[in-house]
Amino acid sequence: MTEPLKQALDRIAQAPQPDPVIFMSPHTWADHLAACQKGDTPAWVKCGECDNFLCTIHGGHADSCACPELEFWDSELGLNPYEQGGRLTVAELEALKVQHGYVEE
Question: Where are the domains of the chain?
Answer without folding.
Answer: 3-99
